[in-house]
């Protein structure tokens, strides 16, 4: 087992995490890019700083919701692109401790999630629209991108890097063991050594030897010999990669799709385009069937509460996970071809058949004739019979396959009926 495999072992077993985007942008409630998208002035943005009170922020409630949903790890935006810090950084005044909230909100998050046994991840944006030494004018997304007044302002990017490295050091020194460092993100020439990424990653691993790091400092995690800063896992955003993620030799590498519940990461009061629990469950199954994880995002409101819509989805997800989690945790890709009625996940000799579309009649398992020792409904343990339907040989080629007949009471639940097959 190489070092990356050893570090990511728990992560690939746990499969499902909670992503949380929360910050000053939750007040205007038009998504986390509001300052950049609207080219908002610092002066205007400071009005949110002056009123941010986090009055209903209770991460113990978030942690309980995550736990009940079956989420085994979490990632919180400690600083997004706007540069505002939820933690008590000694290196800036632009932090939660100086708002009406008046406290270190990262500390409370770490304590609350750890208390529920949930692994703790920290999101940190290497992009920073607030720091005076981060390039603004001409940068494609920066609020000052076409602000003539910012055009000739000299910047000292090394000063920014010292700041950024210093904040990462604070985050990894002051809160005990941190399980995931989630950087966001490299683009164009802002990538790799532009961030002094090798130095950064060495510092991180010297403080937190077991931490896992995403692949967004740049580099090529899929290469034969990835850069030291290329990270431990690949992080596709808002997409489940069709063939999973493999390295240049075709071997699966750790990956995690980050997907938000509606169409924004940060709170957006008008965005009611939430995915259903059924979509979320099937997406999770899709990820696991390709050896991947799902990091599911919620955007709590300005006061710190998750939306009803999010909580409803998490509740339904949790109920399904409670009964069917055995087909997710510790599971991965099966060598069997994708079945026409759904997906497979597998853990050793336990094969999990996720029946999305049953239609009528028995379910057919290509290639499994004589190979199934026992079949049961995962949700309640009901034994299922393997039987050849009447006249089946005469109207289809069933060589090598097995049939399982479901009775009326065993009809699929709306989300995904899981059949556990114990193989010989
Ligand atoms: O935090 C969430 C998003 O806010 C953040 N990542 C997730 C987890 C994210 N924001 N944007 N993106 C990821 C991709 C955006 C890319 C673009 Fe651009 C922004 C394309 C054009 C503007 C920056 C400038 C990158 C390319 C040019």
Describe the structure.
α8 packs across α9 (308-324). This protein starts with a helix and ends with a strand. It folds into two domains: 3-327, Glycosidases (TIM Barrel, Alpha-Beta Barrel), CATH 3.20.20; 342-423, Golgi alpha-mannosidase II (Immunoglobulin-like), CATH 2.60.40. The protein is elongated. The protein contains ten helices and 13 strands. It has 424 residues and is of the alpha/beta class. The model has no long low-confidence stretch (mean pLDDT 95). The strands form three sheets. A seven-stranded parallel sheet has the order 5-4-3-2-1-7-6, with helices on both faces. It has a four-stranded antiparallel sheet with strand order 8-9-13-11. This is alpha-L-fucosidase. Pfam families: Alpha_L_fucos (PF01120). Alpha-L-fucosidase is responsible for hydrolyzing the alpha-1,6-linked fucose joined to the reducing-end N-acetylglucosamine of the carbohydrate moieties of glycoproteins. InterPro entries: FUC_metazoa-typ (IPR016286), GH (IPR017853), Glyco_hydro_29 (IPR000933), Glyco_hydro_29_N (IPR057739), Glyco_hydro_b (IPR013780).
């Amino acid at each position: 087992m190489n070092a990356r495999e050893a570090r990511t072992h728990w992560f690939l077993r746990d499969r499902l995490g909670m992503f949380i985007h929360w910050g000053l942008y939750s007040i205007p409630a038009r998504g986390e890019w509001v300052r950049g998208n609207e080219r908002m002035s610092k002066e205007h943005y400071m009005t949110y700083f002056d009123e941010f009170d986090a009055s209903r922020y209770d991460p113990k409630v978030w942690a309980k919701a995550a736990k009940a949903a079956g989420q085994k790890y979490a990632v919180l935006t400690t600083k997004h692109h706007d540069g505002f810090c939820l933690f008590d950084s000694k290196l800036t005044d632009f932090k939660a401790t100086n708002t009406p909230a008046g406290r270190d909100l990262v500390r409370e998050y770490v304590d609350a999630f750890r208390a529920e046994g949930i692994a703790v991840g920290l999101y940190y944006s290497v992009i920073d629209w607030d720091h005076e030494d981060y390039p603004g004018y001409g940068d494609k997304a920066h609020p000052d991108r076409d602000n003539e007044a910012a055009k000739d302002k000299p910047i000292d990017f090394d000063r920014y890097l010292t700041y950024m490295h210093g904040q990462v050091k604070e985050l990894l020194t002051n809160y005990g063991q941190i399980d995931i460092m989630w950087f966001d993100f490299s683009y164009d020439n802002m990538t790799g050594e532009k961030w002094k990424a090798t130095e950064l990653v060495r510092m991180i691993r010297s403080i937190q030897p077991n931490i896992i790091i995403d692949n967004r400092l740049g580099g090529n995690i899929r290469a034969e010999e990835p850069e030291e800063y290329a990270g431990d896992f690949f992080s596709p955003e808002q997409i489940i990669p069709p063939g999973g993620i493999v390295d240049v030799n075709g071997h699966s590498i750790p990956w995690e799709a980050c997907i938000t519940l509606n169409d924004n990461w940060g709170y957006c009061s008008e965005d009611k385009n939430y995915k259903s629990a059924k979509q979320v469950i099937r997406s999770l199954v899709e990820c696991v069937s390709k050896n991947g994880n799902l990091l599911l995002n919620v955007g709590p409101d300005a006061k710190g509460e998750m939306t009803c819509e999010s909580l409803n989805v998490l509740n339904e997800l949790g109920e399904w996970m409670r009964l069917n989690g055995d087909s997710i945790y510790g599971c991965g890709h099966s060598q069997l071809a994708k079945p026409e009625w759904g997906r497979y996940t597998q853990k050793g000799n336990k094969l999990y058949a996720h029946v999305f579309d049953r239609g009528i009649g028995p379910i057919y398992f290509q290639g499994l004739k004589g190979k199934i020792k026992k079949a049961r409904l995962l949700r309640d343990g009901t034994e299922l019979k393997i039987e050849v339907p009447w006249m089946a040989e005469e109207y289809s080629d069933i060589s090598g396959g097995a049939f399982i007949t479901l009775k009326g009471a065993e009809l699929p639940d709306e989300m995904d009926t899981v059949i556990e097959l114990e193989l010989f």
